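Renewal narrative, Specific Aim 1. Our central claim is that a sequence can be written position by position from structural information alone. The example that follows is taken directly from our test logs and has not been curated for this report. It begins with the structure tokens describing the chain, in the order in which they were read.
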């Protein structure tokens, strides 16, 4: 009876599957790590990684909701980090982070315009811009890294923008909560949410009802770029340095987080909470592999295998829930 009662919940809440998968992994990781994984310090580290990956995943979820995809977010993340670090050494970090967000919005705008004006699939467009902006980042750093002088790390704005902790958690985690609330309001209490999902469900139908399809897609790409760059700035604030490779492969993790969290790649259905749960699961897996001393050359392989198993388990759970 209890299992039967759970089926309607899983059908209504697409993120419930990844929540259950995450819960199982937390139990397994806690039981097999001899207390090295489930401790306050490590949980704080996991949430810090979840925060930056989660910001990127929220932006990707918005684009996926329109039926498009943005795989350039990894390089946007890196460009945001570099812009923030270069400016934070010269101006107040609050100004630097706003400039980084503007860089991200510009990249998102370029992606959106290329997709909506040329009609080229977003996968191809953003694959191209991924390489373009990664190349720019590598060229700007010339193989070296940008860093913030210690003298510039003393202000309260630097601490608030990822450079410090509050109640044992990095401040990036609190920014993630703020962004989640803002996006939730946008999607649930404003016309933007209905229009975004309508575009993803059927662009032609949405257009016939007066929805400006290109404008909605453009807005999603811009928001995605802004969030990726903001995540990069917060990560740079935490580390104090960044190089041209920062954010590499994070675009794949962000997409995986969204898919694991119940976002439909075809568009028309997203879950912000699910995307964050996916980011938490991926961050937890990475942390567990580090704690268990997995050698770097095996890290990506094992991470990929666990992600595939988690995705399969999530899909199987949803299929079971859909059966009468």
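The sequence written for that structure reads:
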């Amino acid at each position: 009876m209890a299992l039967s009662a759970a089926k309607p919940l899983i059908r209504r809440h697409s993120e419930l599957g990844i929540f259950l998968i995450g819960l199982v992994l937390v139990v397994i990781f806690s039981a097999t790590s001899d207390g090295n994984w489930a401790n306050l310090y490590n949980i704080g580290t996991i949430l810090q990684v979840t925060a930056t990956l989660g910001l990127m995943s929220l932006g990707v979820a918005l684009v996926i909701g329109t039926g498009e995809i943005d795989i350039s977010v990894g390089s946007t993340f890196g460009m945001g980090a570099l812009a923030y670090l270069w400016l934070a050494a010269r101006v107040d970090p609050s100004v630097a982070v706003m400039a980084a967000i503007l860089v991200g919005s510009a990249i998102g705008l370029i992606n959106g315009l290329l997709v909506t004006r040329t009609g080229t699939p977003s996968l191809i467009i953003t694959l191209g811009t991924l390489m373009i902006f990664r190349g720019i980042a590598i060229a700007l750093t010339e193989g070296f890294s940008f860093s913030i002088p210690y003298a510039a790390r003393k202000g309260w704005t630097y601490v608030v923008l990822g450079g410090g902790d509050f109640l044992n958690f990095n401040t990036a985690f609190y920014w993630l909560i703020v962004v989640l609330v803002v996006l939730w309001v946008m999607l649930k209490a404003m016309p933007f949410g209905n229009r975004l999902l309508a575009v993803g469900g059927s662009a032609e139908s949405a257009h016939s009802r007066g929805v400006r399809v290109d404008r909605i897609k453009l807005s999603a790409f811009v928001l995605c770029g802004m969030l990726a760059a903001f995540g990069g700035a917060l990560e740079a604030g935490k580390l104090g340095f960044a190089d041209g490779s920062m954010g590499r492969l994070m675009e794949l993790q962000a997409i995986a987080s969204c898919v694991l969290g119940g976002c439909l790649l075809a568009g028309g259905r997203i879950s912000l909470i699910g995307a964050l749960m996916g980011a938490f699961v991926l961050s937890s897996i990475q942390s567990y592999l580090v704690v268990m001393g997995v050698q770097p050359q095996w890290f990506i392989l094992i991470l990929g295998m666990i992600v595939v198993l988690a995705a399969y388990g999530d899909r199987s759970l949803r299929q079971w829930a859909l059966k009468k």
